[in-house]
Amino acid sequence: MANSMASHLVSSDPDLSQIMVFHTANIMDVTGELKEYDVIYLAALVGMDIDEKVKVIDHLAKYMAPGALLMLRSAHGARVFLYPVVDAQQLQGFEVLSVFLPNDDVNNSVVISRKIAEPVSIDNGYNHHHHEWSVDSVMPLSCKYCDL
């Protein structure tokens, strides 16, 4: 549904409709094709819990082109009850470039990261039952639009 709505919105702009492509697929089944894209958008509900979301992020780190951007939606504040929170630590294979944490009626935070050039060997050992939350685990080291 989201892809069809986005495609419909973009189709009205002749320039955007030529450069933006929308695909609906199980991302875990997509491998080599991921290298063809400069930007991958990961919706907030891809991975209904953090363990599933980390598996998807690890998959993207393995197959995306070096230098490609990953824009993903996360959560902050009371919104963490609606959507899984993505820590900078869970973005192995990516460099966090910017984080937007809204303080208005916008539901999702946005994290923009870049796929690092080195080959990625994923072993984050992440287990949400043993994760200790702190300000550093929720906030990336650099945050363009927020204050601690």
Q: How is this structure best summarized?
A:
The protein has helices spanning 2-11, 14-19, 50-63, 135-138, and strands spanning 39-42, 69-74, 94-100, 109-115. It has four helices and four strands; from the N terminus they run ααβαβββα. It folds into two domains: 1-30, no CATH class; 31-138, Rossmann fold (3-Layer(aba) Sandwich), CATH 3.40.50.150.
Q: Given the structure, what is the number of helices?
A: 4
Indicate how many domains the architecture comprises: 2
Proportion of residues in β-strands = 15-25%
Full CATH superfamily name of the largest domain: Vaccinia Virus protein VP39
- Run of helices and strands: HHEHEEEH
- Could you list the spans in which at least 5 consecutive residues all have pLDDT below 50? 126-148
User: What is the CATH C-level name of the largest domain?
Assistant: Alpha Beta
CATH domain topology of the largest domain: Rossmann fold
Q: Globular, elongated, flat, extended or rod-shaped: what is the shape?
A: globular
Going by helix content, strand content and strand pairing, the class is alpha+beta
Q: pLDDT average, as an integer?
A: 77
Second rung of CATH, namely the architecture of the largest domain:
3-Layer(aba) Sandwich
The side-by-side strand order for the widest beta sheet comes to 1-2-4-3
* Percentage of residues in helical conformation: 10-25%
Rg measurement, Å? 16 Å
